[in-house]
Amino acid sequence: MSDDSVSARRFARESMAVLDRLTESAQDEVARAAELIADCVRADGVIQAFGTGHSQATVLEIAGRAGGLVPTNRLSIADLVLYGGEPPSALDDPLLERRAGVAARLYELAAPRPQDLFVVISNSGVNNVVVEMALHAKERGHRLLAITSLAHTRAVPAGHPSGRKLADLADVVLDNAAPRGDALMELPGGGAVCALSTLTGVLLVQMVVAEASALLIAAGERPPVYVSANVPGGFEGNLELEKRYAGRIRRTAS
């Protein structure tokens, strides 16, 4: 199979080229995002991360993982059932993420404090619940970090009645450099295959965590980070760190 065809080798080559470019091009935005994170941690805030669909993979990279910051909370549409008393059948609606009022209810269930930072992740940046969450957070005085594809969001119409998109509302925007539609390689006869946004989203998140940790260390503070629960003492040590944020972060089985 030639290098110009659809292949594992081509995807690896092209995706790594995007990662290399992003490492350099995103430096300024990563630094600004790291300041938001460090300021939130210093203020005893919690990083409230939200996304739908496959953006939840990047949310998981932020909230509750080994090597990540402890004061992080994952918001999910499933919270309507887990914490909000809705029947499981509510999640059967494939258009739930486009329903008005869903984000407001999720915000209410999370009960964030004013110093909490919101990180909202969406490749398109136009789905109703994503924009509604961003609007809700900003109206209540939270700082907002967005991770989105500027190429995609600029190429599609707004889905929220306000006409706003996620990137319009954020204090800092991290462009994940994914193409319109997310898939990287065009197929003969139309269509494309192999999504990019999770790879680039993970890179951006970890770059920001590294920079935020450096800021905390420079200020003489120890970053509150998780140790793998699968090393001796890790689980117990994590529980001790979580006590500071009791009732503010959720850690359910996944």
General description of the model:
- With 254 residues, the protein is of the alpha/beta class.
- Helices cover 41% and strands 13% of the residues.
- It has helices spanning 8-25, 27-42, 56-62, 79-82, 102-110, 128-139, 150-153, 166-169, 197-218, 234-242; strands spanning 47-51, 72-75, 117-121, 143-148, 172-175, 183-186, 192-195.
- The strands form 2 sheets. It has a 5-stranded parallel β-sheet, with helices on both faces. Strands 6-7 form a two-stranded antiparallel ribbon.
- Helix 3 (56-62) links the parallel strand 1 (47-51) and strand 2 (72-75).
- The chain is globular and about 55 Å long.
Q: Roughly how much helix do the residues carry, as a percent range?
A: 40-55%
Strand order of the largest sheet: 2-1-3-4-5
Strand percentage: 5-15%
Radius of gyration: 19 Å
Cα distance spanning the termini? 39 Å
The major β-sheet equals: 5 strands, parallel
Number of E strands: 7
Q: Give me the strand/helix succession.
A: HHEHEHHEHEHHEEEHH
